[in-house]
Structures are given as C-alpha cells and as structure tokens.
Amino acid sequence: MTSDEIAYLISLVAIGDRKAFATLYRETSPKLLSICLRILRDRTEAEEALQEVYVKIWQHAGVFAAGSGTPSSWLAAIARNQAIDIMRARKPVADELDSAYDLADDDPSPEIQTVIKDEGRRIDTCMEELEADRAMAVKKAYVEGQSYQELADQFGVPLNTMRTWLRRSLLKLRGCMER
Predict the structure, then answer these.
(1) What was the pLDDT predicted at 121?
(2) Which residue ranges does the record assign to the RNA polymerase sigma factor 70 region 4 type domain (predicted)?
(3) What number of other Cβ atoms are within 10 A of residue 172's Cβ?
(4) Full-prediction pTM beyond 0.70?
(5) Contact 40/86 with Cβ under 8 angstroms?
C-alpha cells in the first residue's frame, strides 16, 4: 500500500469511516505490532499496546497533516511512543535491585585472580625445568587425573618407576616454587 493510499485512509478515519479504519488496521497492523514487540519484548504487552495505538489513531486521525511527513512514520511514531509509555509504566529495574538483598559474589576478587594467575605462571615456569616426559606425567596425573598404572602403561615404564618420577618431579616443583 502506498503512502498516498495510507494518507487517504487516515483522512477517511478522521471523518469516522469505520470501513476505512478496518482497512487501515489490516494493512498497517503487522508493521506496528512488530515495532511494539521490538520495544516491549513481550507479545501480550505488544498486542495490548497495538490496541491502544489504534484507539489513538481513531481519536487523532484529524491531526495528521499529509504535508508534514509520511503516514507510515506518523503511525510508527504513535506505536513507538505507546510502547515506550508502557515500558515507563513498568516498575523500574533499579527499584527492584535496590530493594533486593545484597547477593554475595562467589567469584574471586580481582586481587585474588591476579595472585592465582601469578601462581599459574610460576607453576608453568617450574614445569619447564622438569624433563619433558616427567612434566607430561605430572600434568596427566594431577590435572587430568590419570592413575599411576595408566601413566606407567602410556610411558612404557614399570609402575614403581612412574611413582618415582612423579615423587621426584613434585619435590623439584616444590623446591622451585619455594624460591
């Protein structure tokens, strides 16, 4: 439907033509509903807003001046303003937050996060001092949770040798971390 046709329908609505109003509704309601829905993000509220939009169109059609803008923008402005008015009428989120109890933040503080990162870097540096196969065995045992027997099988060494590798590697790591 062209702008001129919509403007003509609005002018007929201004003089109380119900048939023109029904046609205007049929042609423009999908777009106006999408505007309300985009702003309100709730279909029920958007549909209620749309009803109010068309009440305002019926009441104020005589105010529309065809030379002052496109009829589509005039209709969209009414829909947008109605949706915003409904949003403003809602209880503000800030009030809900102010009245809520303080919630504990389980995340570590920035200071603790920095300490953890520094410790991680120190551990990585100390791991680099170990032989590559020993470092890999330590990671698989203590990070991935593999058993001594699984590690012994993977590395092709006896079980007691794997235990010795891990014990000596942990002693080296502790010594490095204490420096």
Answers:
(1) 85
(2) 121-173
(3) 18
(4) no
(5) yes
